[in-house]
Amino acid sequence: MAKITALIEKIANGKNPLFQELYGVNEVVLKEQADRYAALMSEFQQVYGTDDVSLFSSPGRTEIGGNHTDHNYGRVLAGAVNLDNIAVAAQNGTNVIRIKSVGYPEFQVDLSSLEIDPAQFYTSSSLVKGICVRMKEKGYAIGGFDTCIEGRVPKGSGLSSSASFEVLIGAIINHLFNDGKMSAVENGIIGQWSENNFFGKPCGLMDQTACSVGGLITIDFEDPSKPIVKEVDFDFVKTGFALVITDVGGGHDDAASQAEYASLPTEMKAVAAELGAKVLREVTLEQIVDKIPEIRKVTGDRAILRAYHFQGDNQRVVEQVAALENNDFQSFLKMVVESGYSSYMYNQNIFDVVHKDEQVVSLALALSEMILKGKGAWRVHGGGFGGTIQAFVPKDLLDKYVETLEHVYGGGSCHKLFIRAKGAIKLDL
Hints:
Blueprint: E1 2-3, H1 4-11, H2 17-23, H3 27-48, E2 52-65, E3 75-91, E4 96-101, E5 107-110, H4 124-137, E6 145-151, H5 161-178, H6 184-199, H7 206-213, E7 216-220, E8 228-231, E9 241-249, H8 255-274, H9 285-290, H10 292-299, H11 301-325, H12 329-347, H13 360-372, E10 377-381, E11 387-394, H14 395-409, E12 414-417, E13 425-426
Helix pairs in contact: 4-5, 4-6, 5-6, 5-7, 6-7, 8-11, 10-11, 11-12, 13-14
């Protein structure tokens, strides 16, 4: 904890080593970030009347390899990005958590009542409650605190705004009440547990782990209680390619569309169940092919196609990591495109069949192929059915690529990002 005036002085208009690690070296960007923290601290003081605070940051994440593999205990390649959610927080000495996000009304979580409430599914308060429940079950201390949050991880962007929020809350509780002793990996696991059980969404563990740990990492979820996290030593900046995430919009929150999303892990697991397994990681492609005549009678053909995608993308992650570690960037790009085609043809998470006239991702992929074929890479990003696409764009085509995509999806829809080394952290300035 530190006084707000002292923190502003240490930030020094962004001329701070930690800020440069989080946000890059562009002086304009660093000044903007410094002003952002100062404004949030000012709001915190106005709302809660306290000037002895801690600062926190939690990044979004980009999924680079392994599309819809994590929920079936597969492998992924992911990186934390320089778009983040930040928080100013302090203990309040009560049994109530009070959260004020910029642009939204305050909500509260009473820690004296921590039961699951299905009526509160898909709310931020349910996520916070779930995190507290699980941390308490794991032996960590919880308590009331006040926080103001400002988010730069766009909702629905495929950069995992919800996972970033979850591990941000976990980091706050970890440092305010537990001296930071909870590991980054466990923070991610707890965030996923909350999303599954209190928020009502059957997500995998990739998003929370990538946001919590930071850097460029590959994660093996064969044992989801103890995921194996390995740092990948590769510098994307030196390739001369830009990582561009484009917000193409689309996506729906109605029950039919939520069912479409939920069908992905459900159908994959249904195929595994026909082979006597819990998840697809426990079976081989050869076993699936051998039993297709029997399996398809129970699961249908789409489930088998999705199982085929899982097996291909799960192995592809291993090969992508090897390519990066061997500085074979062209082979890596080729596999990014292969993963994208597999998602489109087999996993079928490019457009929502309930709203089949809205094919924003399909169109964005077509435009990307038109510009980048033979020179870059493109694929769906994240869960699919709307949201975002990912592209690796050579710098000589960057202006043309951004101009073309923003002509269709609007100014500011393209985000030029870099991989940041830090995950969800308390800022020790």
